[in-house]
Amino acid sequence: MPITKDQINLREELESITDLPTLPHVVVQLMSMLDDPEIDFRKIAAVIEEDPPLVAQMLKVVNSGFYGLPNTIDDLHQALVLLGLDEIQHIVFTESVYSIFYNIQENTFFNYHLFWQHSIGTARLAYAMAAIAEPSIKRTVYTAGLLHDIGRLVLQLYFPDYYERIFELAHQNNLDLLTAESSYLNFTHTEAGFWIAEKWNLPETIKDVIQYHHDLDEPIIEQNPIRAFVFFANEFTRMWGDSLEVAPLTYSLENTDIWATFIHRFPQLKSPSTQDLIQFVDMKLEETDKYIKKLKATS
Ligand SMILES: [Fe+2]
Ligand SMILES: [Fe+2]
Question: Would you list the domain boundaries of the chain?
C-alpha cells in the first residue's frame, strides 16, 4: 500500500472521531488530588474504592512480601498509607492506562508488550532520575513519561494499516519512526498524542511532554526540566532496545553536549559517575520487564 500525502489527511480523520477511549475516572480524580499539599489518604481510598480491580491490586502489592508485614492487610486505607503516594500513583496510572488499549490490534511490528516496556521503562527511569535530582517534580515526571508516546496507540488504534506501512518504510529505509511518520504520513505520534491529551483534558505540563518529547535544547533544560527528564529517559530506553523503533540508535547519548548540559544542571545524577547511572538505567529496565510480564498475566 503506497502512502502519499495527498491520499490521506489523518489529522482531519481524527477530528471526526467521537468514540474515543476514555481516561478512567480514578486517574482523572487522582491526577488533581496528587498536587494537593494537604492530600488525605482517606479521600484517595474513597476514589480507589470505586474501582474494585485496583483495590485488589493494591492489597496484593502490599501483601506481596516486599513490605515484610507480619499480618495480611485487608484494609485499603492501611494499604495505601504503607504504599505511599508515589507507589499509589504508579500502580493506578500504569494499570489503568495499560488496560484502556489492551485489545489493540497487534502485527509484526506493533507489539503491545514492547510498547509498554518502553513507556513504563521511560516513566520509571525519568521518575528515578527526578527523585534524585529534582524531587518536587517526580510525580509529574512519572505521568509524563508514562503517557509520552500515547499517540502511537492512537495511530495504531485508528489507522493500523497506515501505521504498519510506516513501520515497514522505517524498516526498509533505516529511519526512526518519527521521521517515517512525518515523511510519509505528514502526521506524527506527537500530534496524535496531543489530540487525545486535549480530549482527555490532561494538564499543560503533560501535554507539553506528549507534543515535544523529541525536542530538547539547552534553554529547555532550565525552563522545563519535566520535559528534559522524559527526553533522556526516552532516549535511554531506546538505546537499550526497549522500544518499537526498527532502526537502531546511532549515537551514544552520554557523549553528547546536551547530556553534558543536563548533568551540569543536575550534578546529583553524575555522582559518582555517568557509568553508574547507565548501570542504574539497566537495572530499572530489567525491573520493568518483570513488571510488565506480571501485568500481562493478570490482565
Ligand atoms: Fe515519541
Ligand atoms: Fe518514546
Answer: 21-100, 105-299
**CATH 1.10.3210.10 describes domain 105-299:** yes
How confident is the model over 178-193, as pLDDT tens digits? 999 999 998 999 999 9
CA 151/CA 153 separation, integer angstroms: 5
| pLDDT for the residue numbered 254 | 82
Ligand nearest to the CA of 235: 2
Q: Please choose, from the candidates 187, 174, 179, 161, the residue with its C-alpha nearest in 3D space to the C-alpha of residue 2.
A: 161
Residue by residue, DSSP assigns 131-150 as HHH-GGGHHHHHHHHHHTTH
Nearby residues of 160 by Cβ (< 8 Å), 6 or more positions away: 105, 107, 110
The model carries a pTM of: 0.92
d(CA 277, ligand 1 centre) in Å: 22
Return the ligand number nearest the Cα of 115: 2
- Give the number of whichever ligand sits closest to the CA of residue 192: 1
